[in-house]
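[09:14] KT: can someone run the structure on this one? pasting the chain below
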Amino acid sequence: MTNVFAGIAQNNFLVIGRAGIDFFTDAGVAAEDAERVSVGLGGSSANIAAGICKLGGRAALVTRVSDDSVGSYCIGQLRRYGVDTEYVTPIGGEYRNSLAFYESRVEGHRNVIYRNGAADFQMDEADVAAVNYAKFGALITAGTVFAAEPSRSATFKAFELAKAAGLPIIFDVDYRPYSWPSPQVAEEVLSKAADMCDVIVGNDEEFGFMAGGIDKGLDKARALASQAAVVVYKMGEKGAITFADDTEIRTGIYPVDALKPTGAGDSFMAGLMTSLANGYDLKQSLLRGSACASITVSKPGCAPAMANIATLDDFLKHHPGPTSA
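[09:31] RB: done, structure tokens below
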């Protein structure tokens, strides 16, 4: 476990997975009533990388983007947030960046993601072999990278190369059914990935999915903790149970008036990792990650809504505190 936290402490992360473009309505506006939309960077891995940089860490993204104006937008936004784009490779032809269109409202919230011919799924083993793993302290990925080939094999190759370089692997399960050919394939592949990781973060439904039933999810998380250094079992409004070093840590959430539900998991990961890197203990880091999630859901957009150091410090100073776990 010491090596895991030592890697995270470098605060320099290699993040694998998609960058996308988000369109979102004004606050409270349904899609059919929208006369204008805002645009922002999206995609789970891109959000995590941007969130890490906004909180003072360093991050590089490994992915493919479409060789068009949307791909250029994603690269430009990554750079704006300070994300290293050395390993972001454009691809031509009919491959396209993912596009999300969602409503900035909680009640009746709808989120449509276009993933046909996704450019990020074309990331291959040559892309991950080109990375200098010695430059980084830890590898982070979200489960979507495993949903299709050649991205799936490339990411497993990246795991092997990262392990050989001594990097801990941090895995956000991030199960999105629409990206996968079948639930059976997803269960098998995500379970294989989790078995290779040092830190695993997922919600109750995702652990339940890997275990074959939501009622078995907590036991699945507990079992994974026998081989991983940290396993975070998130339960939405009920907070989280974290398994580490033969202990269970229960943490609550920071209640806010949410504007929309999107982006919470990505910002939680960014807050957790950068807090650990900055010397906060595991429980403090989990709570700071939870605060980051609350900040993000209270504002429009995903990457644009994620906390920076000043907004996180201000939030923690003025919020009455987390719910009891």
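[09:33] KT: thanks! The first strand starts at residue 12 and ends at 16.
[09:34] RB: yep, looked fine to me
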